[in-house]
Write a structure and sequence with these properties.
217 residues, Immunoglobulin-like, 2 helices, 23% strand
Length: 217
């Protein structure tokens, strides 16, 4: 699969995830977004050494439909606008993590984005301080937020004449998947609507019966 087609696939599945989240939200309006229950580092914490990884854990499963952490991200920055890490994240159940790297002592911010179990994209920040020992090795700061290798534009199929056919086939597969999922969403919506109508009719019948019973007595 070429890089461009892969990105179209992830974008299409992301759109389906949002649509599915809307439908599920209608079916269960009381459902809440995910929220952070623990993190490394904790908000306001002072670190004296670099941990093996920065991570956050939420109260519910994170929605990673593609298995490629699409829609997820963690960015570490210092007070001077420098960035650290490789930009790669791993999503596992309720948790998301990234390899840890820090520069000199000072204040840092961990900015993260997740896709909640209900399909909504949420972002927030965690601020912390780093006070290492004098012999600690500082990682060099990057001028811009890092991108995980392989997540950007990469060379795809370089065979002339074969790339277009492959891309068309892959696009057709993506459209088929999206059409199927949207059909399922439509069916679920119809079931929800039918259930609501049936419930309202039963309520009206019950109210009518109670009224007639009261009038007869």
């Amino acid at each position: 699969m070429t890089s461009m087609t892969r990105q179209r696939t992830l974008a299409a599945l992301g759109a389906v995830a949002v649509a599915l989240g809307i439908v599920l939200g209608a079916a269960a309006p009381a459902a809440a977004h995910n929220y952070v229950v623990s993190s490394t580092p904790a908000d306001g914490e002072t670190l004296t050494e670099v941990p093996a990884a920065f991570d956050i854990t939420t109260n519910d499963i994170l929605l990673d439909l593609t298995g490629e952490a699409a829609g997820f991200g963690m960015v570490i920055s210092d007070a001077n606008g420098g960035f650290y890490g490789d930009g790669c994240v791993t999503v596992d159940g309720r948790s998301m993590s990234t390899a840890a790297a820090l520069g000199a002592a000072g204040d840092y911010t961990l900015t993260f984005q997740i896709v909640s179990a209900d399909g909504h994209t949420l972002s927030d920040t965690i601020t912390f301080r780093y006070e290492p020992a004098g012999d600690a090795t500082a990682s060099p700061a990057l001028a811009s937020a890092p991108q995980c290798p392989g997540s950007g534009d990469a060379s795809g199929d370089t065979t002339p004449g074969g790339a277009d056919t492959t891309a068309d086939t892959e696009s057709a597969v993506v459209l088929t998947i999206v059409a199927f999922v949207l059909a399922v969403i439509a069916a679920v919506s119809a079931i929800i609507a039918s259930a609501v109508i049936t419930r309202n009719r039963r309520a009206e019948q019950t109210e009518r019966s109670n009224t007639e019973s009261t009038s007869g007595s």
